[in-house]
Write a structure and sequence with these properties.
heterodimer, A: alpha+beta, 2 domains, 4 helices, about 45% helix, B: alpha+beta, PH-domain like, six-stranded antiparallel β-sheet, 15 helices, about 40% helix, flat
């Protein structure tokens, strides 16, 4: 898991070392399908109950196809892009699919470390770690880690930051 | 008026005695409440017929309640300042307890409305640093204490000495020694009509005036002449009517902005106090004093909204933790000539005279790649061209609306001008102590952020930016807006800039082997040595 396929980035910055848990792909896939379902369901209801216009079936099929395509292709891409790393100096993440986002927060400025498990994440045994600094715009979130891994990471980050004097502003 | 005193709480620290708000609040509080009800009371008194025995009693009852509420509030509000915290207990039925750690205090505001001033009182608002990621402004407000007490509190609360030595009283006020950084020049009044906040203020004044009329039950059209004038206006040609109304609004706006400027900035003085705070004092009727601990100052921003910029003006704001994003947050200065704004920005940042860094906000900035210019044009022109096309289609479909699209064509050169202006604004530079960046056309701002105040980076890259080799770099900070963007900077430049600003923070591609990381072997992170303190 140390050095997988290197994702070509347009930034002369080494990508973070670690991939997220492979199960994150399922998470993204289910979320993508769920999103498509939320869009498709009203269309289906209208088409069935009200006998909606013909083009409604067209958009319905398009929605389903788009959802399936997303579920088939995008989670793989996301898995290749999403990376994280905790160095001596910083917490470092890379995320995003179309819009890439690199986030770097110095460990010395970390204020709180939280883990979070949504219902779907729990089902898949995944968790997110949110690292907050004093800034309103600076939280670094590592999504899609294995639960045990996330908890251990949060515990260690908390331990490290507790040792830091001052209020990190 | 027999209100039992707060029962003693056994958990309280008994070393430091509790203090109460100023006794005069027993008078001020009811008066303030009654002032709010004046229109209602007038209506009640006027409309109440003499043979209705209930109304006067109702009015009297309300009066008594208000007075009692004022006394209860005074009796139940207590505060104290211990070595570690500022504590405020208030409320009778619903008790509130607020406590702010003293080392988190960032700014102390003293405000005195005309009513407060009549009784020599000041409201003390203590603001603390945000904690956690959300916009939680910690802090508390003492409404109100005597002006002298407020001044002492201000000194005491912003005292940066360690807790152990704090118990000794702070040095007595040494007013004359404070270094005056800026004073008001009345010629700056010319900038008043050029600021949007003034225009917003006029809206507020107009709304307030309308409200008062409404509360008094006066219909504006009943006022003599208004009706007749409205009729004559309706009879006039459209262009004349629109022109006249526009002119009238403009005149009201200008006068209102001048009045508002005067009220806000009367007696303006920016000083560097001997206790290491920057202090802004201003206000005609309501006097305000904002104190920022210089130690907590993370930088300054010079703001130039388009109108103000066209008039050659600018306004300087402090970037400090605890100062929020509200309209007047952290303003160090009224709208002033550009050179003066930059001078004040430099003076505010310069705790110690530093020849190497004259005025950081005037540092020559490195321009951004020409791809950034292309992006400015695309982003400005594309929506306008879509609008023109839509207008043309509409004009084709409904010949009656054919005049719309030539109107939209006018927007094209305007958009192009704006794009050129926006590109000209883009720039960044790194000085020995500050990261300086500038962006914006309609609302331009130059920000000088202390390098030590940067607590993280965010780099964003959209697909189009990726093709152009650009990124948007954001310096994350605890102060001001929480992050300052450097728009469309070259990707390599962004990394170099971030690396130079916070050496050693970024993992570089060519930076040799990866450092030990908390990955599969999590114990690395725990045992890793720490560098920043």
């Amino acid at each position: 898991m140390q050095t997988g396929s290197t994702v070509p980035t347009a930034l002369p910055l080494r990508p973070p070392a670690h991939r997220v848990d492979p199960r994150a792909r399922s998470w993204w896939r289910v979320r993508g399908l769920g999103g498509a379902g939320i869009v498709a369901l009203p269309q289906l209801v209208v088409a069935l109950v009200l006998g909606g216009p013909g083009w409604l079936w067209g958009t319905l099929v398009a929605t389903v196809v788009a959802g399936l395509c997303y579920a088939a292709v995008v989670p793989g891409i996301l898995f290749r892009i999403h990376r994280w790393e905790v160095t001596d100096e910083a917490v470092y993440t890379l995320s995003g699919w179309l819009v890439r986002e690199w986030r770097i927060a110095p460990i010395s400025r970390v204020q709180t470390v939280d883990t979070e498990h949504g219902p779907l994440q729990q089902l898949l045994g995944l968790a997110s770690v949110t690292v907050t600094t004093a800034s309103a715009r600076g939280p670094v979130i590592i999504r899609g880690l294995a639960t045990a891994h996330a908890q251990e990471l949060a515990r260690q980050l908390t331990e490290t930051t507790r040792a830091t004097p001052g209020d990190a502003t | 008026m027999t209100v039992s005193a707060d029962p003693a709480d056994p958990t309280l620290d008994t070393e430091v005695p509790w203090r109460r708000l100023d006794l005069r609040m027993v008078v001020v509080e009811p008066v303030r409440t009654l002032v709010k009800f004046v229109p209602v009371l007038i209506v009640v008194l006027i409309t109440g017929s003499n043979n209705d025995p209930v109304r006067p009693w109702v009015t009297l009852g309300i009066g008594v309640l208000v007075v009692v509420a004022g006394v209860v509030r005074w009796r139940t509000t207590r505060y104290r300042i211990t070595a570690e915290r500022v504590e405020l207990h208030s409320g009778w039925l619903r008790r509130q307890r607020r406590s702010v750690p003293r080392d988190r205090i960032r700014t102390v505001d003293l405000t005195a409305s005309p009513l407060h001033r009549a009784f020599r009182l000041s409201v003390v608002a203590v603001r603390a640093a945000e904690s956690g990621g959300e916009h939680r402004h910690g802090g508390l407000t003492l409404d109100a204490v005597s002006t002298a007490e407020a001044e002492t509190l201000r000194r005491e609360l912003l005292d940066r000495r360690p807790a152990e030595t704090r118990s000794t009283p702070v040095a007595q006020p040494v007013e004359p020694e404070a270094e005056v950084l800026a004073r008001l020049h009345w010629s700056w009044l010319r900038f008043a009509p050029l600021t949007f906040s003034s225009l917003a203020g006029i809206g507020a004044i107009a709304a307030a005036g309308f409200n008062v009329l409404n509360e008094l039950g006066v219909n504006p059209t009943d006022v003599g002449g208004v009706d007749a004038a409205a009729e004559r206006l309706a009879a006039a040609p459209l262009w004349l009517a629109v022109g006249l109304v526009g002119l009238a609004l403009l005149v009201v706006a200008v006068i209102g902005s001048l009045l508002l400027f005067t009220e806000r900035w009367w007696g303006y003085r920016l000083t560097r106090e001997t206790d290491g705070t920057l202090r802004v004092r201003r206000g005609l009727f309501t006097t305000r004093s904002l104190s920022v601990a210089e130690e907590r100052l993370r930088g300054v921003g010079v703001h130039e909204p388009l109108l103000l910029r066209a008039g050659g003006g600018a306004q300087t704001r402090a970037l400090s933790t605890g100062l929020g994003r509200e309209a007047q947050g952290g303003v160090l200065q009224p709208p002033a000539p550009r050179a003066e704004a930059h001078r004040v920005a430099g003076a505010a940042l310069r705790r110690t005279p530093d020849a190497a860094e004259a005025d950081p906000t005037l540092t020559p900035l490195l321009p951004h790649p020409s791809a950034a210019r292309r992006r400015r044009y695309t982003r400005a022109l594309l929506p306008v061209l879509v609008l023109v096309a839509a207008a043309a289609v509409v004009g084709r479909a409904w010949p009656g609306l054919g005049w719309i699209w030539p109107g939209t064509v006018v927007l094209v050169p305007l958009a192009a001008l704006l794009a050129a202006d926006r590109y000209r604004a883009l720039g960044h530079a790194l000085t020995p102590r500050h990261l300086v960046s500038r962006l914006g056309g309609l609302s331009r701002r130059t920000v000088a952020l202390q390098r030590a105040g940067v607590i993280g980076w965010t780099v964003r890259q959209s697909p189009l930016q990726r093709r152009a080799g650009l990124v948007t770099l954001q310096a994350v900070t605890a102060a001001g807006e929480g992050g300052y963007r450097i728009l469309d900077i070259g990707a390599a430049d962004a990394v170099a800039l971030a690396e130079a600003t916070t050496p050693g923070l970024l993992p570089r591609t060519d930076g040799g082997p990866a450092r030990p990381t908390a990955g599969d072997d999590l114990t690395d992170a725990a045992s890793a040595p720490r560098r920043h303190a």
